[in-house]
Design goal:
Elements (H helix, E strand, L loop, with lengths): L2 H28 L8 H12 L7 H8 L3 H11 L14 H8 L1 H18 L7 H25 L4 H10 L2 H10 L3 H5 L4 H19 L4 H6 L16 H11 L16 H9 L4 H15 L1
Helix pairs in contact: 2-6, 3-5, 4-5, 4-6, 4-15, 6-7, 6-8, 7-8, 7-13, 7-15, 9-11
Length: about 290
């Protein structure tokens, strides 16, 4: 028996466990004060806050958005995509693009672009696989939410899209914070269970701190808790729940050995099977914009 090896393993295990608890403590403290995001994310949040004014003229909105070239470019691309210009009529300038998309979608797109950039930041390289899978899941959930809202309810599809996009924001934030802990970076798979346990509660507090509407915050609660009731879509929370499943639920980024077509997820996917093709098509469009 190699006692030196065992002692080393114990030391690594203890250090890893200590850093898990330290990260949770640090996040808890941050969420009671000022939440700190990378500069690119903060810029999108400032833009989103400025665009909250319902009386802001389109020309002024275009002027504000133009200060963020990446967001402005992606908005032009989005406005001229088949998703928002099915007849191919071009939006020739930023003001025309914003008029076509609407302010709510502009705000959501700015946030989506910032989230995509955050997941691709070089600092996130230790968690690149889980970050990319989580990001793809979030975009697919947003696409599904928009389509469910449009086809199953009278809920604003843009609001549903935003709710789907941010439903796992707590997981994004935990990944971003984990970069600062060497033991977690060295063993990225150990972070998955921690995220699964805490991402919803972290996300709810985070969405409140970011000034999201109460409807969107409430819609993200318990979105990973499987239901056993018949498939009925009435509220925004129903849309997020079913969209999350149609996007693969947490199985996709947490435990890929679980069959997403079995049990309750399988029932949901079969119920909405006629929408799956459209969801995939919209997902590809959104990924092109948010990339």
């Amino acid at each position: 028996m190699d006692t030196n090896q065992d002692a080393s393993a114990d030391k690594v295990g203890k250090a890893l466990n200590d850093q898990r608890f330290q990260m949770l403590e640090d996040i808890a403290k941050e969420l009671t004060g000022v939440v700190v995001f990378p500069t690119s994310f903060d810029a999108a949040l400032r833009l989103r806050k400025e665009l909250q004014n319902p009386d802001l003229a389109t020309a002024r909105i275009a002027s504000v958005v133009s200060l963020e070239p990446l967001i402005a470019t992606r908005l032009m691309h989005m406005a001229n995509s088949t998703l928002y210009s099915p007849d191919g009529t071009p939006a020739r300038n930023l003001q025309a693009a914003i008029s076509r998309l609407g302010v709510n979608l502009v705000r959501t797109t700015a946030l989506g672009i910032a989230m995509g950039q955050l997941m691709r930041a070089k600092e996130m390289s230790s968690f690149s696989d889980i970050a990319q899978t989580l990001w793809n899941h979030s975009v697919r959930t947003a696409a599904a939410a928009r389509i469910l809202a449009r086809t199953q309810t009278r809920i604003n599809p843009d609001e549903a899209l935003l709710a789907g996009l941010v439903h796992d924001l707590g997981a994004f934030y935990m990944l971003y914070r984990a970069v600062q802990y060497p033991e977690l970076c060295a063993r990225p798979d150990t972070l998955k269970h921690l995220i699964m346990q805490w991402h919803e509660s972290v996300g709810v507090t985070l969405l409140h701190a970011l000034g999201m509407s109460e409807e969107i915050v409430e819609a993200t609660i318990d979105h990973d808790q499987l239901r056993t009731t018949p498939v009925v879509v009435r509220k925004l929370s129903d849309i997020v729940y079913y969209s999350n499943i149609l996007a693969g639920a947490h199985f996709e980024w947490f435990d890929q050995n679980i069959d997403p077509n079995a049990g309750e997820p399988g029932i949901v996917r079969r119920h909405f099977r006629d929408l799956l093709g459209e969801i995939e098509s919209d997902t590809r469009e959104m990924q092109a914009v948010f990339a």
